[in-house]
Every structure is written in C-alpha cells, then in structure tokens.
Prior knowledge:
Blueprint: E1 2-7, H1 12-22, E2 30-34, H2 37-43, E3 49-53, H3 63-78, E4 83-86, E5 91-92, H4 97-101, E6 107-112, H5 117-123, E7 126-134, H6 138-154, H7 157-167, E8 173-177, E9 180-189, E10 192-198, E11 204-205, E12 217-218, H8 227-241, H9 261-276, H10 281-293, H11 297-309, H12 315-327, H13 331-339, H14 349-361, H15 365-381, H16 385-398
Parallel strand pairs: 1-2, 1-4, 2-3, 6-10, 11-12
Antiparallel strand pairs: 4-7, 5-12, 6-7, 8-9, 9-10
Helix pairs in contact: 1-8, 3-6, 6-7, 9-10, 10-11, 10-12, 11-12, 12-13, 14-15, 15-16
Amino acid sequence: MKIVTSVNEPYLGLLDVWRRQSSRHVPGSTTVVCMDEGAFARCALLDGVDAVRASSGPATAARHDFWLRRFDALATAHEADDLLHTDADAFWLRPVSPLLGGLPDDMIFSREYGIPRTVAAKWGFVLCCGFFLARSTPATRAFFARWRDATRRRMDDQLALNELLVEMGATWASVDVEGRQAERCVIRVGGASFSILALPHSTVSREPPYGAPDAFVAHPYFERQFFRSYVDLMDGLLDETGSVTGAGSFPIAASPEGIKPRDFATGEALRWLLERRPDNPAHWAHLGQLSLRMSRPVEAGKALDAAQSLRPHDSATLFNLGMGLAALGRHREAVGHLRGLVGRADLEFDLARKASARLARLGAWPAATELAIHAARTVSMAGGMTLAARLLRRAVARG
C-alpha cells in the first residue's frame, strides 16, 4: 500500500505538523506529491519522504488545473500498488491501515456533508477526496479514467466524483465496520462489479483532532482566515502534550447549546495554549473572532486587544483583527488594520474581497477600492475572469 499526500509551498508548515503527528501511525515511507518547486526543494531533503513533482503547470494555474495535476500524480502512484491518499490536514490519531486492509471494497472514502450539496441532499452525505483508498485493479483504473474525465469537465475532483456516481446509479446500504455504521454501494465498471465504501464519520472525523480524540483520523474543516492559527495550534499542542488531540482535553460533546462544537473546542484549546504561550497574535485574533461568534463581546475585546499589543504583521491576523474590531463597533481601529492589507503580497483573494467590502461599509473608499483591485488581479491570475470583471466594476463605481 502506497501512502500519498500532496503539498505546495505555503502548506509546508502543515506538512511538518502532519508528519510529527502521523508518522508513528503511518507504516513505511510517505510519497509527497509536490505541487511547486518550493515544496519539492524542501521535501526532497526529508527523511522517510519520497518527494515527487506533480506535472508542470504555470505558477498562476487555475484552481482546477491544480486538482488535475494532483489527480494525474495520484493515478500514476496507483498504477502499481494500492493507493491510500491522505490530505496533509488529515491527522492520523491511530493506525488506520490495518482497518482498511481488512475491508473488501475496491475503493474506500471518508465522508462529509458539504459539496456537492445536491448529492448531500440525495444521499445524506458526500464522499470526501481528502482521505481514500484505491485498490490497484483493472476496474479501479477504469474508474479513475472516468473520474479524471469528469474532473476535467467539472473543474473539481470531489464534485466530479460524487456527481459521476449519481450518474452511474449508485445507491447505498448501511453496513457495520467495527461497531460503527458505514455505507456501501456496488456499481458496474468495465463489466465488473465495483464496490465503494463510505467510512463512518466517527472513523475519519471532520471535527478538529483536539475535539475528536476517539477517531482514527481527524480531517478538520479549516477556515482559511484562521489557517496560520490552526497550524500554530496543532504545533503547540504537539509540543505541550505529544499529540494534536491535546490529550483529549477539549471534547466537542461539552459544547453549550447554540454554539458550534468545533468553535467551542477550538476556543477551549486556544485558551489552554495561550495560558502557556501568550505571545501568539494569530491565536488571540482567532480567539477574539470565536468569542464574537459565541456572543461573548467582552472576552472578544480583551483577546483582540492582546493581539493588537503584539503588533502582528501577517495579512490573515490583520484581517481577523480588523473584522473583529469592526464587529465590536471600534471602527477607527478596524479601518487602520484593514488599510494595512493594501499592497500585501501574502493577501489571499477571499480576504481581500471581504476586507474591501467591510472598508466600503465603513466609508474608507480609497482602501476599499485598492483591495477590490487586488482581489480582481488575484482571481484573474487564477482564471476567474468573470469574477475579476465584477470586482473591477465595483472598484470603478467606488472610485
């Protein structure tokens, strides 16, 4: 069984945390598909890693080109051996290979409840491409070929996979996997019977690892604006407790009514770590935003003040500070932080778009216009010309 993950240069910090957590549970070496030269240069030096380049593509390749390049690398790895693909944010908490190896299915997927929403409404879940096993058989290779064609059309591997299975008439029946409820479907591929298993949600959980310590694998939803904070949090929990679970100290079951369990668990984990390491502005800004969600404005204000006192410089923390202070009605401070995003090379499209909209509502038109232009430039480089044109029209109207 070949275990494969993929990474680009901005995610190298996450890969480091994944390796520290998961290496004790991952048998043998891991193949890392490097999506850019920066990632390859780093991964080629790592022990226990077989670094391979994805097919070449322009630095500004559209998002769907990324998925196609990764898909081709996975298909190549799958040709001669069973393939177990795991995202670099799918943290192994227990050995999962023996469990998967004992199941008879041609392909085994984790599941979630997001996109495509039409399929989630039909099945009650969707298959997740962040963690799956594919046996090296003629039928699986034939299915991969159909899946790749669908990915090229749909521009997203997960959308393509689920919609393809609906098109092929997949229906699911509940089965038991070590006392947990899984779902199985059997379809025809290349004239042969082809079995796909959707693992129980509790086996590969979409909750954060510090909130789901009983899972085999924790593959949490990461909000992009908090990415740096999440990586630092996992790293800190590993340093302090030896595991990204934080020794199981923050169970989502303790979440009060009306508060998202993952927000509650993350807030508790951040508080615990900040008591020991109070000098991380990304953590304070993250805690401030979570406190606002939990209707705790006084706590939010204290956390945001602590973040400000540490004089953060990265775009995501400045964004979280600005948006949090705006929500508290501290508009002058908010505008100062959001204006600080103008001209930042590390500012992502979605944060630029949201910051521009907030600045416009606060009447800071020049900065709002500059950020809208930044967002338009970023998304046009990634192939989103229609959205870029809409953003530019908005910027011109403001100007």
